[in-house]
Structures are given as C-alpha cells and as structure tokens.
Amino acid sequence: MDLANAIVGQSGGPTSVINSSLVGIVDEARASGKIGRVLGMRFGIEGVLNDQLIDLFEQSESTLQGLRHTPGSTLGSTRLKLQDEHFEPILKQLKQHNIRYYFMIGGNDTMDTIHRVTEYAAAHGYEMQGIGVPKTVDNDLFGTDHTPGFPSAARYVALSVAQAGLLTRDMQRVDQFCVFQTVGRSAGWLPAAAVAAQVSANDPPHVLLLPERPFDRSAFLAAVERRRKEHGYVSIVCGEGITNADGSPVSASETRDRFDNVEFGAMGGTSAAMVLHRMISDEFGWRGEFQVTESLQMCAADRGVALDFGEAYGVGREAVRRCLDGRSGEMVTIDRLGNDPYKVGFGSTSLAGVANQERPMPDEFISEDGMGVTESFHEYIRPLVGEMPRYTSLR
Questions:
Q1: 351: Cβ–Cβ under 8 A, 6 or more apart, which residues?
Q2: 195 occurs within a structural domain
Q3: C-alpha span between 24 and 37 (Å, rounded)
Q4: CA-CA to 139 of 20 to 30 Å: which in 166, 229, 309, 385?
Q5: Residue 392 and residue 395: Cα distance in Å, rounded?
Q6: Catalytic annotation present for 51
C-alpha cells in the first residue's frame, strides 16, 4: 500500500530563516519513513490551484542543507486571499496527489488559510491533518513566545539603529536627527528591538514610536527636543504602522492588500519616517535623515542569529511529529522555559485562535510615556538577538 503524501507551502513575507523550517519538515518526514513524498507548493496555495508542485524528496542533500541558511522563500510566496470558489479545486488536487498531511509556514493570514482548507476537507469527508509552522518578523502571532524570523530581524534592526546612531552623533553639526522605520503593521516588537544594542540609556534609540500607542505630535516633538538637547542629536525609531489618535496611519497610506492590510511600502505612498522627518524639520529647522529599509529586515541572513535558524528548523520537524501523532488544527509554538540560561520547548495552539489575529506588545514591556521600553522587555529580547558588538568612543 502506498504511503500518504504531505504538502508544504510558504506564504506572506519572507524571513532569513523560513527555508530552515521547510528543510525541517522535509528531514523529519523522510526520517519517519511514514510519508511517501513531500510536495512543495510553488507560490503558496497558488501552487495547489495551478498544480505547480515540486517533489522535495528528490532534492539533493546538499541543496537542502544549503537552504537551511538561505534567506527568502525558496518555494515562492503569495498573498492570495482564498475565496469560496477556490476550495473545491484545492480539494480535488489534494485528493489527486493523495495528500493527507498539510503544512504551511507563515503568519496569521497563513494560519487562516490552513484552518479553512483543513476545515473544508473535513466537511467533505476527506481525512487530512493540517499543522501550521510559525513565521513572521513582526512577532505578532498568538500563543508563541516569539516567531522564527523575529530574532534575526530584531538583530538587523538593533545593529542598524546603533550604527546609524553613531553616524548621526558624529555628524550632528550637519544632521541633528535620524528616523529609522521598521516593518510591522500593528505590533511594536520590531521597533522595540532596536534597544537590544544599548549599553546605557543614553545610547540610541532615544525615542520609540510603537503601534500600540497612538501618536501624539506634541509629546513626540517635546521628547525629540529634549533628547537633542541632552545628546546633541536624537535617534528615533518608528514602526511603519503607527497611527494617530483617530486611528488614521501617520504614513497617510491608504493602499491595502487582499487581506485588507494597509500596505505601508506601497508605491507612491508616504512612509511614517518621511512624515516624521518633515514634521521635525518644519518644527525645529533641523536637517536629518530617514531610513526605510523595508524587506531588507526580512532577508539579511548575514545578520542572522544561530538560535533563530535552529528554532526555525526545530518547529518544522515538530510539525511533522505532531501530524504523525494524529494531531491537526494546530500551530507549533515556541514556549520559553527560562532566560538565564535561555531555554525553550515546543508546544502548540489552535489555528482558530491564531488565524487573522495580531498579538501586540504587552503593557508591561512599554514605558509609562509610551516612547520607550521597560527592563522586562530588555530581559525578553536579550537572549534572542545574540551577543551584540560594543563600540568605543573617545573619552
């Protein structure tokens, strides 16, 4: 009797470590001896609809091991929003290829896709197990301590802000401020991670703007002026999705994707960093810089964290183990067991509880004025980003 097959796809934005999760799935499936083939979807769920599938068991060992340290989404990604008419042809293809194990690696929108496909299959009498594998640099998935991809993106942001801060400090007679913008629609995990390179409270960043707190123009400008007087320059980090008190984006962007998410990097849009830059210049007459790195935070494998690659691989293997244990309708989670020493285990949470939801930073991680973080957040982020460089200044 032929063994049942598995299928896997990658969806949403890429990360430095998403391919490591893919290889974890392939390696565990092969090692189990209980899965006939693992088919990879080209461009996410579109690969099922268009019958564009790759037999990942046919890939060489050297290719697979190389992918463990290759950024981006090697299968190709998608942001297709499933419609009712998609489900019947998807199920037909899954049946044709004898797919009984269904995996997708992605964020909250991706978990919605897995949930809906597995629910549809069950409702039509087709036995198939579905497990989600977490991924997002935004770190905004419910049920998990952090998501694979976030630690490496956090390190990228922390190093970029620290190094840009040194440049601004040394060029303060020319540029008095710098605004650095991170990705992330509704959660401040990534902009907050900029503090990971701080040795003292005087180090950049000096002002954080997080989506969890409404933007207050007067309070922001007062903080900028105060910090510039203290240091001769000011380093500002903002999340792309910061909003005014009425809920409107500071970026003034109105473009939305197929999941109704605001596309802050859309062509022709004005970034939050640009708006803040103009605001500061208009108020104080200062010259400064704004830096919007967009997807570079998602694929800077040269700044990747070994812990992140290892955990991404681990959640892929865990997903297969859970499917083979008869589990379904779950997303694998990373559960922190300790900080010193850092220790985690793998658990799970329901797809229904993750799909289309966003996890903001908790209040205990955000400073009272809303423009900084607490020591609790420093304790949270410290083990994730790895050892940071220490830069030297003249006395």
A1: 111, 112, 114, 115, 118, 130, 132, 329, 330, 331
A2: yes
A3: 14
A4: 166
A5: 9
A6: no
The residues that bridge with 365 in the sheet, in sequence order, are: none
Q: What is the pLDDT of residues 337-380, one digit of tens each?
A: 999 899 999 999 999 999 888 899 999 999 999 999 999 999 99
Q: Are 373 and 332 in contact (CB under 8 A)?
A: no
Query: Do the domain assignments include residue 145?
Result: no
| Other C-beta atoms lying within 10 Å of the C-beta of residue 269 | 17
Residue 15 shares a structural domain with residue 130:
yes
- Alpha carbon 181 to chain centroid, angstroms: 15
Give the pLDDT score at 255.
53
Domain count, the chain: 2
Range of 27's domain? 5-135+303-354
Please pick, among 138, 140, 203, 308, the residue that the annotation labels catalytic. 138
- 241 and 310 inside one domain: no
101-114 in b/e form (b: 16+ CB < 10 A) is bbbbbbbbbbbbbb
Residues linked to residue 108 through DSSP beta bridges, in sequence order: none
Rounded CA-CA distance 35/384 in Å is: 34
7 Cα distance to chain centroid: 23
Unique residue bearing structure tokens 């859970």 = 322
Question: Could you tell me if 36 and 22 lie in one domain?
Answer: yes
